[in-house]
Fold this protein.
Amino acid sequence: MSEPVIAVTELTRRFGNKTALAGVSLSLARGAVYGLVGANGAGKTTLIRHLLGLLHAEAGAVRVFGLDPVQDPVAVLSRIGYLSEENDLPGWMRLDELLRYTRAFFPAWDDAYAEELRGAFGLDPAAKIRTLSKGEKARAGLLVALAHRPELLILDEPSSGLDPIARRDILGAVIRTIAHEGRTVLFSSHLLDEVEEVADHVTMISHGRVVLSGSLDDIKAAHTVDGRTPTLNEIFVATVGAT
Amino acid sequence: MKLVIVARGHAVVYDSDETFALAVMGPITATFTYCLAVFTYGLSGDIAGRPSMYPRRLFTLPVSTAVLAGWPMLHGTIAVALLWAATRAFVLWPSGVAVPVLWPAIAAAALLAWTQALTWMPYGLPGVRVILAVLWLGTIQSIVLLGLRYDTSESLMLAIIAPQIPLAYLAARLAVALARRGVVPDWRGAFTWMARLAPVRTARGQFASPARAQAWLEWRRHGWTLPALVGILLPCELALLFATGDTPTLVWIILFGVLLTPPFMAAFVAATVRKPDLDGQGGGEHYGLPPFLATRPLSNRALIAAKLEMSFWSTAVTWALVLVAIPVALRLTDTWPIVLERWHRTIALMGEARASVLTLLIVAGFMVSTWKQLVQTLFIGMTGRVWIVRTSLILTLVLVSVIGPLLDWVAGNGAVRAALWDAAPTVLAVLAALKLSAAVWVAVRLYHSRLLRDRTLVIGAALWCGAVLALAAVLSWWIASEFFPRYLFVLVAILAIPLVRLSAAPLALAWNRHR
């Protein structure tokens, strides 16, 4: 069996008196779409920040591609595409400058693919980032996260800036494409119907703990009652409500 | 200061009016500066940035813009007026001194009100706030000084100064109204032609490496700020040469002021350079590394190197401007002969070689000082901790407040001067030992955290040692006197060449990037 893309072991993190993550363990295999779900403040973004090396593990271990992202940020980050919830692209850059700047960091950058995505997202290369709408900024962020065909795509609440049509047409299509190419996607969301639509595996976090994790089919099968398969929303309410 | 530290247990005697004035003005100035920082919200803002420094969180309060601008101004002006009232009431003024009653309070209030208006105003270019503040507040202070010089009556001073406060209020109200609507004018488009001259610009195609791309980003963010600020101030300063006539002292004072401008302005620009945000829109509370930068597949060392490179080129462009502008101005104002005459006298005094080295050392000293000002506080901003930034700011203010009275005390006390002179080698040796110990600690941390490669550490240490020895050799050759043993020059060089704060920057960034 190949080495997992992400291996998190007993990860614990506290911010002052608040425990953000309490003994989280997680293993993500190559070539699947993982949905990370949880209420606001559950610990999704904290976990993602550990994977990117933006937080160091106070207790436990984090390995991405078998490497510690804090010790080897360049080796890890050059293989990851990341769309931040904050979407903090530099407002003063034009889109073409952003693409030119970003491609310098990724040897695998694919100009043709970047141009294809730019066209599909309807983005003007001469437009300054600050003049873009929230949805357009999210698309620009997605573009630079995808154009180097990353081995691991991490999307932190990617839908927060996208309208429903963009979510369905762009995000869903992109995520499926990435997964079909044998790469891995981890995306966090609190929009459970969206996760249900694209994820193969789901991990639910509540109060810093993993309360449910497994393939979507297995989770649904386990919660089927009297032949009725519940939605992920119902499973979430039943599971998180019980914790 | 003098009562508490220097002359504890002794009667305090001031030898001159100037010394007395300094002793009174030291604490007042420090307190006034603190009031400026507090009532302008300046402790948590980016003074060289374009956006208003008024805290955005207050814009959502259900109050009018007049209230947002008016109340801090009212509180501030009352506070500084009370500061003067307390000073006037409690200081034991020498007999026969006519201490004004009201106008210093009104002048302090006007200065504070204008500082508020200028800091809350959004600007179209980075650094314009600093320039306007220096020019406008300097003008108000000049008016006050002229009034003092010509012994103007209190009522006339009040008539001149008091109208400044309502004017400042109107300006502040406009500033807050603009900021509340999110207006940040952008005049940078008018300077895009300058980008073509950028030292770190690249071909339109692609960057040669991630490091080049990062250097480009840093240049676009901060590169032109210092040259633009100095470029705006230079003509104003050099124009004064027209007014000097044939007075050599004034010419030299103006030239000294011009040479001092880049390092002086660099200290303000450094506040922006050390902030890791991308747009200058984050306000003072955002020292954390934005995810966009933190997730660049680039080492902490490379991120810092890009800032150092940008600062180097920014300094080079600034000094190119200064070194071109000075001869042109001297020629246009016919003050060139004054400089030449001093040059010939210096050559006659110490020989051509030593005079040339002295000139080069002075200019190089100003240049290095400019770069040093830009980068020496990087390690503070890179920590990403607001409490560290604020503490360093407060410590700086305290130091600035204390240094004046201390120097005055040393200058006026022969025994202390002699003791300091005797102890100078020991003091320098202790300071050098402290610096080297700190450097070793930083180097060990860098080594263990693998932030710098062994080779980089060794090369860096070798270059630093080379610079120290070179400076010590030049000083030793230039000063060559039996009064100064050679090891003194080595100690001075060790203290002068930047080391600890620069090498601590990657550590600070790592602490910020991997929290």
In short: Chain B touches chain A at residues 188, 204-207, 209-210, 212-213, 216-217, 220-221, 278-279, 281, 290-292, 294-300, 450, 513-515 (CB under 8 Å).
